[in-house]
Amino acid sequence: MNVMRMVMMVCMVFFGILYANTTIELKKGWQLVGVPEKLSDMSVFENNNVEIVWGFDGATQKWRGYSSDANITQKIQAGAWAPLQHLEAWQAVWVFSRHDWNMTLESSTPPQDAANNDIKLYAGWNLVEVPQQSVVSEGFFGDAVVWKYAQDQEWKVNDATLNFPSIDAITSSEGLWVKSETTHTIDVDSTLSKLHTFNDETSMLAYIRKMLQMQHYYPYETTSGRPPMVAVSDAENIYSGTNGDDTQSITDATSTNLQEAGVDEGDILKHDDVHLFSADNANSRIVVTSFQKLAAQDYVPLTQIDMNGKTVMTMYLQDDRLTVLSNTQRYTIADAAETTVGTSLVYDPNQRFSLDIFDVSDIQHIRTVASHEIEGSYWDSRLIEGRLFLISQFMPNVTSEYPKIYVNTVCTTLQPDEGMECSTGNDNSVDSDEEPLPLRPRAATLECNYDIKAWNANNCDQFQYDDTGAWKYDYDNPVITAENLTPFVTLNGSRQALVTPSRFYAPYKLNQRANITTISSVTITDGHYDESVSFLGTTNHFYASPTSLYLVSSEYPMFFDYRHGKEQQMIYKFALGSTITYKGRGVVEGWMLNQFSMGEKDGYLRVATTVGQSWWNRETKNSVYILKNVDDRLQIEGTLSGLGKPAETIRAVRFMGDRGFVVTFEQTDPLYTLDLSDPVNPKKIGELSIPGFSRYLHVVDADRVLSIGRHADAEGRQQELQVQLFDISDFANPRLADTVQIGTAESSSEAEYNHKALAYRASDLMFGLPYQSYSYGINKNSSEHFGIYQIEGMQIRLLHTLTSEGTEWGDVGRGVIFDTRGHTYGALIKGTHMICDTVK
Known about the structure:
By secondary structure, the chain is mostly beta strands. Among the domains are: 23-193, no CATH class; 404-421 and 434-473, no CATH class; 581-737, Lipocalin (Beta Barrel), CATH 2.40.128.630. It contains 8 helices and 60 strands. Strands 20-21-24-25-33-34 form a 6-stranded antiparallel beta sheet, with no helix packed on it. It is elongated, with a radius of gyration of 32 Å. The protein starts with a helix and ends with a strand.
C-alpha cells in the first residue's frame, strides 16, 4: 500500500470536514470580500453586524444593494438601484461592517457542483473572487486587469504600467475588481493547472520564492561547502588488465525487458553481445566480464570501472557508449589531511547526481567521454535513438531567519497574586544564548508569584520574554539570508543553469509544493548536453513512447478544494522531436499503479486508474480513459468504467496495439480483456476470475499472455510466487492455460514490481525469473535462484534453476539467457557474484 496515498486520503477527509463551514473575517468599515458559497439568503449580513452590502452585476454593469435596515433599503430603492438578492459562489461584494466580527457560512453547495469551479466574466467590470480554497498568482485572469483592495493598504493591481503596488497573490475570500475585454467563463480547476512560462529570471525566481512562502516551508540549506567532484580518471588508472581475447560474440541474448520497442530503459546490467557491464554498488564500481568467460564458468572480471564512492542507479549501453547515472557521495572527511581512525565525516545535503559516459569500444582502454553533475534527485530516464531523456526533481531551499514581534500585552504587566506561590527550582530567566518558551514570565520580572488565572486567560504562554517585553516570531514574514531556488548542471567542470525562464512552466496555483521537475536531453555519442524543459510540480509516474513523454503529478488533488473529495491526477505531455516541446495537459480521476498504467497508440493515450482504496471503504472504481491531444489539452475521448468488483483495485495493466489487459484484485484475480480499437468507445470483451493476482503482464503473442504475481488463498492472503499463462485466443473468453508456483509465501522476486528483472526472449519463448528463498527456522538462511522456463504451446515448462546459497549476494541482480558454443546458457549476476550453467 502506498503510504503517501493513505496520508493523502486521510488529509482529504480531514480537510473536507474542516472546510464544511466557511469563516470570513470582517473588519469595521468598508472591505471588498468574496463569499465562496452560493447565497440565496442575504440575511447572513444581518443588521447588528453589517450596515450595507453592495454587489455589481457584470451583465448589466450596474450596482445592486442590500441591507437588513429598512431605512437603508428605502434609500437603495430611491436611488434606482436594483436589490441584491443572491450571490453566486464566484461573486464578491463591498461590505460596510459596524465592527470586527467573523461570519460563518455552512456549505450549501454539493462538492461535485460546478458552481465552485466556474467564474463568469462579462465584458467590462466584474466584482469576483476565486471560489475555492486556493492561493493563485496575479496571472490567473489572463490579460484582464485585476484590482485588489484591503483595509489599511493601497490598491494593488496586476498591471506593471500603472503606478500602484503589484498583486503578489490572490486568496479565497478576497474580492477583486476585474476588467475583462470579453464575456467568458473561467474553469477554475483547468486554469489552476494551466502552465505558463516567464519572461526573465527575476520573475521566475520571485514566483518560486512566493510558492515557498505560501507553504511556510523553508528547507534548511547548510552553509558548508560541497566536496569537490571526484571525476573518474582515465583508463590506465582505473582498469586492471585483461587475460586473453574474450571478444567472441554470442547470439540471442536476453536484454533489458522494455515496455515500448525502440524506447530503451536503464538497468543495472547491460551487454553488447560480447561484454557484460554489471553494477557492483557494494564496492562502488562497474564489473566488466564477457559471455565467453561466463560460459566457461570463469567468474573473475575482465576489468572494472571505479565509480569513486558513487552508487550506480542505472546504465545504458548503445553504440559503444556506456552511460551511467549514479548518486554522488554525500559524506566527506572533515579534514582532508586527517586519515586516522575516528575521522569525522561531514554530510553534504545538496541534491545532485552524476552522469558519466564511457567509450567502451576498446575494453582494454575504456575512456571517459563526458562527466556531468546535475543538481536535484534522479527520477527516471529513457534512451531513444542516441538521445538520453533524463527526468530529475529539485527541491528549492532557503536559509531564513524569523524576526521578532514585540507585543503590547497585559502578560508583561500582570501583578503577582498574594498567596499564590510558584513551584520552587524553576528559574525561567532567559540566557543570552537561548530563548526558550517559558511556562511563565521571567522570575526577575514577576518575582516568584503571579496570577495564574489571568495568565491563562490571556494565553500568555504563546509569548517569549526578555528585558524589552513579550515577543513571538513572525513566521509570516521570514528574512531570507540565503537561497538555492533552481538547479544547475556542471558539464565537464563548467557550471550553468539547468532551468531557463522561457522553458520553465508553472501553474497559476501558488499554495502547493514548489518542487521542480526537469526533462533534460543529452546526446550520448559525445556527451553533449542538448536542452532542458522544466515545470513546477512533482512527478510520480512517467511514461515514454518513441515520440512522446508523459509526466504524471499524483499531487494534483492539491489543485482542488478538498470539499470536492476527488483524487485526480494531472498528466503533462511533451513531444520528443528535434527539441522537447510542451504540448498540453489533461486530468483523470483516480490513481495510477505504475508506468504500465499508460500506453500510447496513434496519438491516443490510454490510462488505467483506480478511484478509492479497498482499505478506505468498500467502494472502488476502476476505469480506462483514452485521451487525445487537442490544442493545449489532453482531452478525454473515451471512457470505460466498471472494471472489477466492489473494493477491488487495479494490480496490473498492459496495453498492446488495439488491445488492453487489466487485472484487479481483492480476494480473487479478475483478468479483463479490452478492445481499444475505437478510441471513443473502448469495450470490455471478456473476463476471467481465479485465485491470486498478477503484478506484471507480458504479452507473448496474439494468443497468449504471461503474468507474474502471487497465489492467494480463499481469503485473499498472499502465498507463493506465481507465474501464469493465459490463453486469449478466444478474446471474449480468456482462460488460464497453466500455472507455476515458486517457493513459499516468504519467497520474493524483484520481477513482481520491476519488469526489468524478467529475462525474456521471443525467439524461443524462453524466460528467466530471479527470486530469493528464505528460511526462518532454527537455521536461518537464504538462497538466490534463477529459474529458467519455456512456453510450449499452452504450457510453461521448467528447464533449469540456478541456485547460490548464502546471503552475501545482496538483493539486486539480473539474469541473462544466451546461446554460444552450440548450447543455451543461463547466468545470474549480482555485481561480482556470478553463476552460470547450461540450460540445454
